[in-house]
Amino acid sequence: MRDLIGDLINANISRRQFLAAMSAASFSTAAAQSALESVAPFIPGSDMPENFTRTVTGTGADLLVEQVLETGAEYLFVSNGSGLGPICDSLVDHPQLQLIQATHEGQLVAIADGYAKASGKTGFGMFSRVGLPHSSSNMYNAMKDRTPLVLFSDHADPDRMGTDSHEDLDDWLEAIKPYTKWRWTVHEPSRLPEWVRRAYKLASVLPGGPTHVRVPRDLLYQSNISANIFSGQALNIAMELRPDAREVERAARFLLESASPLLYVGPEVSQTGARAALVELAELLAIPVVQHRSFYADFPNFHPLYIGEVPAVQSYLNAYPAPIDCFINFGARYPNNWNYANTAVIHASVDPTTVGRNTPLASALVGDLNEVARALIEAVESLATPRQLESRTAARRAACSAHTAQVRASRLVAGSRVSGAPVPWQRLMYELNEQLEPDAVIVEELGTEQKTLGFFPFADDAKLKIGRTEGRALGWGVGASAGVKLALPDRQVVSLQGDGGFLFGQTDSLWTMSRYDIPVMTVVTNNRSYEETRWQIFNRQGRAGRANRDYVSYLGDPDVDFTKLAAAYDIRGAIVSNSDELRPAIAQGLRTLREGRPFMLDVRTRTLGAGAELSWYPDFSLADRRDRNV
Amino acid sequence: MKTNSRWGLTVAPVMAAAFLIPILASSQAPFPEGRARDAVFLVCTQCHPLTRITDNDLTAAEWEFTLYDMIARGAPLHEADLEAVRRYLIENFAVDEQ
């Protein structure tokens, strides 16, 4: 496409030829037209739309803020740093950019990440030059999820760069190279808008990811700089790339000939807005669906064709005993250890670098997944009549539907029959689902999230799941839930946290929730343990397991009262110790949300499994070892 | 405090195309035959070996709680088999309350 745009700008081809060539290159008409409109002002002889670019004169910070606003940004997420001074000056004249402050760079990135995941827009943030290491854990999470973020910081002034002065390193950017799609240090203030545009473009084009731009503080303060600011229209090129038509037909034939296909879905489905089309495709061919680990629910999890995660395939095959002969990966990474013998593998992705990365393919479909799904539907319908489709799929549809209905029914029984103290976690989920709004948003950071969330129906017309991150670096969920609520202020938002996960420095985000009246209910499933860590250690029955020594997992001493942590930030809360207390406590929380304030629910849940009965941890008291009691 | 090893709940996907692997140990002595046994073999072995059942000493109440926990975490047991599996685990593997 870059060459085509170059030819257009250099008048080597006409607009009509440009559109025809884009179409031949598999771009949709909408994408080609959008690209044409975006570059139109640069075509010789074109009339530049009055509002396409404008010259702004001001400080470096003014240029940065003006260009950020042109992307359509509503919020700038910030944390403390003296480099924010020039931004604050600029905001006096740009009140339309709303600051949301965090008290820690890592939580700032989590808030921006949640906002971006929920809104589908790019999140913008800025922190101190020395805050980069703090930010990098959630920057890593965002990179694994390909979340579009543009993160700024200030930087050492040019006359001190490279001198190993205080608050500076010779190379800040090398450390975050694996966590960012692109990074840059600005040296020329008049080019600031250009770097903002580039950071935004590279962050937001799928597969997205964080970008980072460092700006020396004195460049942000420098005044009377003139530069062109580009309108948002110039920055948004639709990328609905269509898959190759021949590959689509090949794939459609594999699907039609398959006796037992399986659809494996991942986050690109949601990122490209392809969920509805994929449901249609699955229903057309009665293909059972397996969810890859994802921070979205990429297929309605209560759909009759949804069979769960990979381990659940075995039970489905007991209900419909035909070996999988066609595996369709739609926007996911590959499952671990899957046996592809005698299986035609089809992989559809927006990212050509991932297609076929781990296995040979029968068909590769590179393109926007909504376009891919629509093209496959069209191809299948052109190759088989409705009667032929029905005769090929009826038995599979019936078997899968009957199986999944039975599994969902037993799960509801399992959630409703347990009670008591400490609270069974599944009873908590059952009650939450009963009491939350039908379209509530669940933001979770639990150890086995896709299993523990089975009580919530997720779909475009039901609840929305956001989290856990693919990177799984703990310390994301509380901040992310604040960002989600900022993006979706009219939907109920509940953050599901483990006590261990919450203690990964997430108290900071309660400050942000409280300051800005962000009504999120944080539910801590407080089992006083890093449960999965304990299982891993004790199930192996190594020396620690055999000796019943829980060196790192037990969290019950000190026994943290999360409502007191919340109270320190003027957030109300409740402790639930028995399942009988769940309903009134949840109701209290939801009332508080309606009043516009956040709420903390500390649910003392039962832990079980290997080592559950242990409260041993290495005995150590520094106070007892002192020679002087000072 | 009990000192013996307890039921392990690790549900890491050890799929390895497990559906291609013959169901384990259909003639193993501790598992009396019947429809409930088939369901146990099918559902439980998807994530862990059968020794997690035989090597543990849960009471009847603990077995019931553990079964519901496993189902809630995604063990794809049919509702039609649930009661039979609950009774099967308790009758064959539960230990007395101490």
Question: What report would you give on this structure?
Answer:
The complex is a heterodimer of chains A (630) and B (98). With 630 residues, chain A is α/β, with parallel strands linked by helices. In chain A, helix 2 crosses helix 3 (29-39). The radius of gyration of chain A is 27 Å and the shape is globular. By secondary structure, chain B is mainly α. Chain B is 43% helix and 0% strand. Chain B contains four helices and no strands. Chain B has helices at 35-44, 51-54, 60-72, 79-93. In chain B, helix 1 packs across helix 4. At the A-B interface, helix 13, helix 15, helix 16, helix 17 and helix 21 of A face helix 3 and helix 4 of B.
List the helices and strands and how they pair.
The complex is a heterodimer of chains A (630) and B (98).
Chain A: H1 2-9, H2 15-24, H3 29-39, E1 53-58, H4 60-70, E2 75-79, H5 85-91, E3 98-102, H6 105-119, E4 123-127, H7 132-145, E5 149-155, E6 182-185, H8 192-204, E7 210-216, H9 217-221, E8 225-230, H10 245-257, E9 261-265, H11 268-271, H12 275-285, E10 289-291, E11 306-308, H13 313-319, E12 326-330, E13 344-349, E14 363-366, H14 369-383, H15 386-416, H16 425-435, E15 441-445, H17 449-452, E16 464-466, H18 477-487, E17 493-498, H19 499-502, H20 508-515, E18 520-526, H21 531-539, H22 543-546, H23 562-567, E19 572-576, H24 582-594, E20 599-604
Parallel strand pairs in A: 2-3, 2-4, 4-5, 5-7, 6-7, 9-10, 9-12, 10-11, 12-13, 13-14, 15-16, 15-17, 17-18, 18-20, 19-20
Antiparallel strand pairs in A: 1-8
Chain B: H1 35-44, H2 51-54, H3 60-72, H4 79-93
The first-level CATH class of the domain at 33-93 in chain B is given as: Mainly Alpha
Considering residues with a beta carbon less than 8 A from a beta carbon on another chain, report the largest interface and each chain's count.
A-B, 55 and 38 residues
- Give me the secondary-structure category of chain A: alpha/beta
Q: What value does the average pLDDT of chain B take? A: 74
Amount of beta strand of chain A: 15-25%
Strand content of chain B: under 5%
Poorly predicted runs of chain A: none
